[in-house]
Each structure stands twice: as C-alpha cells, then as structure tokens.
Fold this protein.
Amino acid sequence: MTRPKPDLPLVFTCILLLVFGLAMVFSASAPTAVHWGKGIFYVLKNQGVYALIGLAGGFAAWKVGIRSDLSRIAALFHWLAFGVTAMTLFFGVRTLGATRWLSFMGVSLQPSEFLKPTMVLWLASRCLVPHDKPLEIGRTLLLVVGPLALIIIGQSDLGTGLCVAAGGFIAGVMAGMPLWIIGGTLAAGVAGVLAVFLAGGYRATRIQEWLLIGHAHPGPPTQAEQSLMAIGHGGLGGEGFGMGTQKFGHLAIAHTDFIFAIVAEEVGFIGGLLLILAFLYLVLRAFQLAQRTEDPFARAAMVGLAGGITGQALLNIGVAVALVPVTGVPLPFISQGGSSLVGTCISMGLCLGLAARVERRRKPRAPFATEEPA
C-alpha cells in the first residue's frame, strides 16, 4: 500500500474557507465586542482557539478515517453523540429560544454539531443492507426519525434537525436506499416540517415575518429585511473589508447566523458567489473521490459528510437572502461558533480520511501499460 496522503484540493478549499471565516468573524464581530466592553479582537481570539481545536480534531479524524473501519464503529460514535445531545433536554442552557447548549465550567458545547457527522456514518453503514429487506431499512429509518423528532421538539431547534437529517439522507441515497423509501422519507419530512411550523409559537411568527418581507408592516425591519439591506449595499464588488454598516446595531448577531449578509455587503455579489461555489466544490469533489472506490460505505459517507456541510451552507444563505424563513443555523467554517467549527472540521477530516483510505487501497497502474496481446 502507498503512504496515505490527503486530497490537496479538498484540504486547500477547507483551509481557505477557515481563514476567510476568521477574517469575516473579526469584521462582523468587532462592533459587538466593543459594545460588550471588550477589545475588537475578543471574538476573533475565541474563534481562533476553536479553529486550532478544529484543525487538531480534523487531523485526528483524518487518521481515524484511514486506520479504522468506520462502518464497524459508526454506531458507537452515533449513539454516544446522541446520548450527549439528549442531555440538553435535562441540563441544557436555553438561548435565543432554543435549548441547544450544555455548559460546564464556563465552557458551552452544542452536542448536536457532533451528531451531524456521526449520523452520516451510522446511516451509511445501516443502509448497506439488501434491498429485499425493507423491514430492516424501515427500522433504521425509525431509529433516525425518532431521535431527530426528539431533538427538534425538545431543543426547539428545527434548523439543526434539518441539517442532521440532510447529511444522513444524502448518505442513505448514496448507499442505495430504495426509491420508494426515498420518496416516502421526503414526503414525511416535508409534512413534519409543515406540522412544526403550523403548531404555532415562535416558528409561526418567523413564517409570518418571512411572508411580510417587502410589504409594509408595523415595527422596525426584521432580521431578514436588515440582511437584504446589507446585501443590497454590497452591490457587485462590495463596500470593502470592514466597511459594512449593517453590523453597527442594525443586524443583530451579525457574526453568527447572518454573517453571509456581512460577507455580501463587504465583498459584494462576486465574493458571495465565490463563497457559494467553494461550498459546492466541497460536495462535488467528495462525489468525484467517491467514484474511485467500490466500497459502498466509503462512497456514501464521503458524499454525506461533504453534502451535509454544503446543504447547511445553502440553508444559511437561503435565510440570508430571504428564500426561506429564519432557521438559526450557522454558516459552516464562516460563522462564529466553536462547536460548529470543530464539528465541521471533524466532518471534513473524516471525509479526507476515507478518501485517503480509498486511494491507499487502489492498485497503482504500471507506467506505459498496454493491452494484452490477443
């Protein structure tokens, strides 16, 4: 076997996104940090620490992906992550309407961010069953839907539930999930999301605010409207790095869920488009690498891991441009948030590890190889 090496285009894209994210976190958070009475680098320093932890976690995940049979230990990782996530139902800290975090000795952790990659690995391994065993696949889906419903209802966190489901669903499709189950799962998912929104509460309020965008309504502009203003200010080329104005008390939490609006305001439509293309490249490159292996688990997991990140990015951007109601999910690599950044790095580390494992197992082709004589 050849010595494993990471896929350099994928590594470069991840590092580029990480560095760009740190720069935008600094720009978007500086006014808030000053308002808190801290220095302008306060949020950046915290995010930088998590970036180092994320790089270490991603490297460790890359090693695990190379040396371990993840299909055998996926269930252990998944149920461990789910167990910690379930603890938020009893010991969670409620912030901004959702109970997503655990706090210990002043350090906050959002366990559901680590449920995203483990769900992909576990579902990729569970869906590798013969298609003539629909009951086995059905039982797997029940084990997926049940915990997700618990997270959504208990944490009041539909956005995270959707992101966890997206990566797992992509992995299931890549693992050969039958079409009738794919269609049924999509229909059930749409019905479930509609039921959650129609149940009332703050989600119904978000729907109403979303429907009123562009129409006269009482009160100040909503977050989505402030986001659209920021994007409009940016135009084609942007106002310049650090020169955006919406982060000065207009767009709340500008360095987290709505950071794409600040990106578009400061680097313009061109910069925003390049960022979207970078996220699309992640999943396309993972799909390209997945085609090189005959291992169905590796193929499903690689695309599911990268696809989950890209899907979350598109959901976040969709909120920023008012295509969908506010969901409260961060922009991977870019938004401020330690758990999100570390979880994203681990996901890509696992993807890179599986890709390196695939390349390691490929038989090298002899140079100047020719067809055998007839």
